[in-house]
Amino acid sequence: MAILFNENTRVVIQGITGNEGSFHARESIKFGTKVIAGVTPGKGGIDLDGIPVYNRVIDAVENEGANASGIYVPASFAPDAIIESIEAGIQLIVCMTEGIPVLDMIKVKQALKGSNSRLIGPNCPGIATPGAGKIGFIPNFTLTKGNVGVISRSGTLTYEVLWQLTNLGIGQSTAVGIGGDPIVGSSFVDLLELFEKDPQTDAIVLIGEIGGSAEEEAAEFIKDRVSKPVVSFIAGRTAPPGRRMGHAGAIIAGGKGTSEEKTKALEAAGVIVEKNPAEIGKMIKNILDKKINH
Amino acid sequence: MKIHEYQAKEILRQYNIPLPHGEVAESPEKAKEIASSLRTTVVVKAQVHAGGRGKGGGIRLAETPKEAYDAAKAIIGMKLVTHQTGPEGKIVKKVLVEQATDIKQELYLSLLVDRSRNKECLVYMASQAGGMDIEDVASTSPEKIIKAAISPATGYSPFHARKLFYGLGLDKSLSTQFSNIIKALYQIFVAKDASLIEINPLVITQDGNLIALDTKITFDDDGIYRHPEIKEMRDINEEDPLEVEAVNTGVNYIKLDGEVGCMVNGAGLAMTTMDLIKLAGGEPANFLDVGGGASAERVEKAFRILTSDPKVKAILVNIFGGILRCDRVANGLIEAASKIDKKLPMVVRLQGTNVEEGRKLLQNSNLKFEVAEELYEAARKAVELSRSTIP
């Protein structure tokens, strides 16, 4: 089962002829992904390793049956690329682009309302379902198929945790990086809801960080609606207030969005919050072992 | 990005928001000249990127041009310490000389981004408690803050102003002035990619007019690329010199106070590395994200920034190679260490893509470092090394 990305997912890469787009299209094919088309306006008609390149997303939908898109275009073109995918009826849109202005993202969120599309990102490492494929940057070697759902606002920290799980023999149902921007397409809550319903997922890892209230909203949701065990880590305990810690969204503003508040909210919802991320894998292992013994 | 009060006021003026008359001065002579031409009591205000200037002695009243000269002389060049500058303070380079205002009442007004889930929009905040820190008002008496959400999809509508105006219970005579300000704030916000516009206080004068006495604007760093006029307002004197150098090399660096310097790829992992240094009993000296596509050259520059912080006693390099290849990082480190005289103890933790090649490169170099496999182990070792260094 897994969530959002499965065997029927057919991916079009927006920006396939660029450095990042072509590199990650090839990496994802090695991971088993069905990359069925690419889009680069003005370059329609050529191909990348036999993958047809179109001028428009709608052509990839009509001619190749694309139902998911991966966006690797610069920040000034990315909002346009997302809205093009929404208009073309793409179900899963994953945008890796960093640096999209907040005002543009507010407009994108408007465009998503009432559409058939779900957006992951922007400024995210993407999504991977081991055994089915991936869109984005998550390194293939960190992933194995299994029963743990992973959701994170970070990139490399996610790889770290996935690698830890994989080394302990714990596989993942789906891993999703939701992105480090203040406004993202899908929140922790959206994905928790899907993981809770997914029969393949037995436990969830939630990696948060300072800034905003996504973790508090997640805690509120988990309290009433999530029965599966959740293990969490919140990055940025030592971050100074008022500074943007790399990610545009990782900022303690007006005393709000600290790791203490988030930890408190999650713990009150029954989530195990680790202070040392190196312990996440072991904690998940304990939980899953207990489950088998029951 | 932050700008000075006088720059923010220039923007407000372009949108016809009423302001006290005034001008910026870089010398006491100029301050005196401005005061003479204003022919009123003036306020001389230090221009630094920090709040709490009044309490720190950065704002003075002057009744005559001579007093304005003296006030400017005292403020320009002073090291202004406020609750927002930290103990090291900020050197004042400019003052704003403005007509003093007869205040009847102070209000608070701002426009910012609401990033909460499914509500993503802009929101006005207004309060009768002007002049105060809005965070204090929010925590002690949140009911005193009137809010009005505004979506860029529909834009400004007069009810936004009405919602705030009647919420504040202001006198009818102010309604036109007030709605003009509310509308202008929205126009500025969307035209300039702001992330916060704050007028605090918005003053009702004795003669019954509204005037923006103090203002602060910050901009969305990701939107600056389409506003060259805003980019020009950046004042690098307000920033840490090492941070300025970092920006120029494409490295994400924030200076902190500790003794363990760290170099990491990825923002989340960089914050985590700082947290682990603290967990191991040390203090991080910085946040540093070399980025996903870091070249050997960028790694070298990042290393140079770390070693030029005199507080740093040990360095922790933590790289999880995904897109970034470990051998490339190793080459950068070797290159950097060979060029930099200052030798600091170092712990290197590499994982991921091309990790074997990276480790081999480091082992075959004459670089002195300790290796760690695990994240926490790396932090512990680095903290230990930072303590054992003889000063």
- Report low-confidence residues of chain A grouped into runs of 5 or more: none
Architecture of the largest domain in chain B in CATH?
A: 2-Layer Sandwich
- Reading side by side through the largest sheet of chain A, how are the strands ordered? 3-4-2-1-5-6-7
The helix-strand sequence of chain A is EHEEEHEHEHEEEEHEHEHEHEH
Please give a structural write-up.
The complex is a heterodimer of chains A (294) and B (391). Chain A has 294 residues and is α/β, with parallel strands linked by helices. Helices cover 34% and strands 21% of the residues of chain A. A 7-stranded mixed beta sheet of chain A has the order 3-4-2-1-5-6-7, with helices on both faces. A 7-stranded mixed beta sheet of chain A has the order 9-8-11-10-12-13-14, sandwiched between helices. Chain A starts with 10 loop residues before the first strand and ends with a helix. The mean pLDDT of chain A is 95. Chain B has 13 helices and 18 strands. Chain B has helices at 5-14, 28-38, 65-75, 134-140, 158-168, 175-192, 228-231, 241-249, 267-279, 296-307, 326-339, 355-364, 375-388, and strands at residues 22-25, 42-46, 59-62, 79-80, 90-91, 95-99, 103-114, 121-127, 145-150, 194-205, 210-212, 215-219, 252-255, 260-264, 286-289, 314-321, 346-352, 370-371. Helices cover 37% and strands 25% of the residues of chain B. In chain B, helix 5 packs across helix 6 (175-192), helix 8 (241-249) packs antiparallel against helix 10 and helix 10 crosses helix 11. In chain B, strands 7, 8, 9, 10, 11 and 12 form a 6-stranded antiparallel beta sheet that branches. A 4-stranded antiparallel beta sheet of chain B has the order 1-6-2-3, covered by helices on one side. The radius of gyration of chain B is 25 Å and the shape is elongated. Chain B folds into 3 domains: 1-20 and 102-237, ATP-grasp fold, B domain (D-amino Acid Aminotransferase, Chain A, domain 1), CATH 3.30.470.20; 21-100, Dna Ligase, domain 1, CATH 3.30.1490; 240-389, Rossmann fold, CATH 3.40.50. The mean pLDDT of chain B is 91. At the A-B interface, helix 4 and helix 5 of A face helix 4 and helix 9 of B.
